[in-house]
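Hey, I'm writing a tutorial for new members on how sequence and structure tokens pair up, and I'd like a real worked example in the thread rather than a made-up one. If someone can provide the structure for the chain below, I'll link this post from the tutorial.
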Amino acid sequence: MQAPPHGYPVDDLFALPDLPRHTELIDGNLVVASPQTGFHSVTICLLESGLRRTVSDAFRVRSRMTIVLDPRNAPEPDVLVVRAEAVRSGEQDRYEAADVVLAIEVVSPDSEERDRDAKPRKYAAAGIRYFWLVEKKEGRRPVVHTYELDPVTKSYAITGIHHERLKLTVPFTIDIDLTEIDHM
């Protein structure tokens, strides 16, 4: 599909017929996700289930749901945590940036630049307070880089790098054994 001269607006992402599943809008351009790897799939499952076990009832964990950041950007993080009141129905197809507490990207070979650079900058600019970047290191285990938004610079500051256990007290108490991936 040929994009309009100034790119697609967010409303088109939800109105254009027959778009492939998991199409994102980045700077007005439609980005179609390639098939995910086993590592990507299992890591999403591990983080999603670990978060569901540990976050309070004030939050909801979702995977691969669109976040509207601004009129030309609507990415789809691999995992996200939203405020419970933001969940309105089972047919809901997006969340607003203000509803999101945590966005997580699992780096894929075809999306490295977007996952490491473009998306974190856009999440920070939209005010999403917490961001995690997950990469595959040595074998099949994930390494989770955790970040918190610095309100002065409007950019993310690293708060930790987690190899075998993801144990945090912010944005909520979390304890996820990353080595569980060995049995998945």
